[in-house]
């Protein structure tokens, strides 16, 4: 069922399953010369990192057209816009009440 | 996550009961701004009620174990009880139109499984400019930047990179 959902045939799956490696031979050879693991060439996309990069990109983009805006305000707003409204409110209350306690 | 306890099911239950009882209210102030993405801090959630004498308010309070405390001296009325201690009562909003006009222009945001009417950022600014307290003046530039940020974001999404 899983294979069907992924659009992968059983033949293709078992073909991959019984291979020693899925990486091209060239990667193995370069890794051997560099004395690193072949996986060093694989870049995993971390969603959190991707999101932060997107926020920073958008911050610059918005400020390019609106240079008088405060960069921190723009960046923090974008961070919050990635959250659900209830999380935005919680953040605001947590910080607000911490300040209140410290006063 | 411990942080979730600051605005949890008990507060949402109260808002849900208000809606169930047909009480007309708008979430206003900095909590409303925070819900729309403003990086501001607040201690309370301000609720602007159309009619504080609406019996639905007391019914909703009773459901969540809360109480209505009448104004004492120059102090405004307040809610008491664990489920409602984060909420502040607002009966008038300086600088704004009537409740009926403002509620027609609110946005509805999801909190848990309910949708609550929230005063738009532009109207929050209008109200804070009218009141003009120092603490309101400090936050105005931030709120204005938030509006421009959202406009900028919409423009990027509309026209691409």
Largest interface: A-B, 31 and 34 residues
The helix fraction of chain B, in percent, is 40-55%
User: What is the number of domains of chain A?
Assistant: 2
- Rounded mean pLDDT of chain A is 88
What is the tally of helical segments of chain B? 6
What is the string of SSEs of chain A from the N terminus onward? HHHHHH
Assign a percent range to the helix content of chain A.
55-70%
Largest sheet descriptor of chain B: 3 strands, mixed
The gross shape of chain B turns out to be globular
Outline of chain A: elongated
* Shape-level CATH architecture of chain B: 2-Layer Sandwich
Query: How would you name the oligomeric state of the polypeptide chains in this document?
Result: heterodimer
How are the strands of the biggest sheet of chain B laid out side by side?
1-2-5
Low-confidence stretches of chain A: none
Derived from helix and strand composition plus strand pairing, the structural class of chain B reads: alpha+beta
Number of helices of chain A: 6
Gyration radius over CA of chain A: 24 Å
Number of domains of chain B: 1
Kindly state the number of beta strands of chain A. 0
Structure description:
The complex is a heterodimer of chains A (103) and B (161). Chain A has 103 residues and is an all-alpha fold. Chain A folds into 2 domains: 2-41, no CATH class; 47-102, no CATH class. Chain A has helices at 2-6, 10-17, 25-34, 47-65, 71-81, 85-102. Chain A starts with a helix and ends with a helix. The model of chain A has no long low-confidence stretch (mean pLDDT 88). With 161 residues, chain B is α+β, with helices and mostly antiparallel strands. Chain B has a single domain, classed as Beta Polymerase, domain 2. Chain B is built from 6 helices and 7 strands. Chain B has helices spanning 9-20, 29-35, 55-63, 99-103, 121-131, 134-159; strands at residues 25-28, 45-49, 67-69, 78-80, 87-90, 107-111, 114-118. In chain B, the strands form 3 sheets. Chain B has a 3-stranded mixed β-sheet. A two-stranded antiparallel sheet of chain B has the order 3-4. Chain B has a two-stranded antiparallel sheet with strand order 6-7. In chain B, a hairpin with an 8-residue loop joins β3 (67-69) and β4 (78-80). Chain B starts with 8 loop residues before the first helix and ends with a helix. The model of chain B has no long low-confidence stretch (mean pLDDT 93). Chains A and B meet through α4, α5 and α6 of A and α2, β6 and α6 of B.
């Amino acid at each position: 069922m899983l294979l069907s959902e992924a659009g992968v045939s059983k033949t293709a799956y078992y073909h991959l399953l019984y291979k020693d490696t899925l990486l091209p031979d060239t990667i193995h050879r370069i890794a051997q010369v560099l004395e690193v693991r072949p996986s060093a060439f694989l870049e995993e996309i971390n969603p959190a990192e991707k999101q932060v990069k997107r926020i920073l990109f958008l911050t610059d983009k918005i400020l390019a057209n609106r240079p008088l805006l405060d960069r921190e305000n723009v960046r923090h707003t974008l961070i919050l816009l990635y959250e659900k409204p209830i999380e935005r409110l919680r953040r605001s209350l947590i910080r607000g009440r911490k300040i209140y306690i410290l006063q | 996550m411990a942080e979730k306890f600051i605005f949890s099911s008990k507060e949402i239950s109260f808002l849900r009961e208000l809606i169930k009882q047909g009480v007309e209210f708008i979430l206003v102030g900095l909590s409303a701004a925070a819900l729309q993405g403003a990086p501001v801090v607040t201690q309370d959630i301000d609720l602007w009620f159309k009619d504080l004498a609406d019996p639905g308010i007391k019914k909703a309070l009773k459901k969540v174990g809360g109480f209505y405390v009448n104004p004492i001296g120059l102090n405004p009325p307040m809610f008491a009880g664990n489920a409602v201690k984060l909420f502040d009562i607002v009966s008038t909003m300086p600088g704004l139109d009537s409740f009926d006009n403002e509620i027609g222009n609110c946005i509805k945001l999801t909190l848990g499984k309910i949708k609550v009417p929230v005063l738009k950022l532009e109207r929050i600014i209008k109200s804070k400019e009218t009141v003009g307290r120092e603490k309101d003046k400090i936050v105005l530039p931030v709120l204005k930047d938030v509006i421009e940020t959202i406009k900028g974001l919409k423009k990027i999404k509309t026209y691409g990179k």
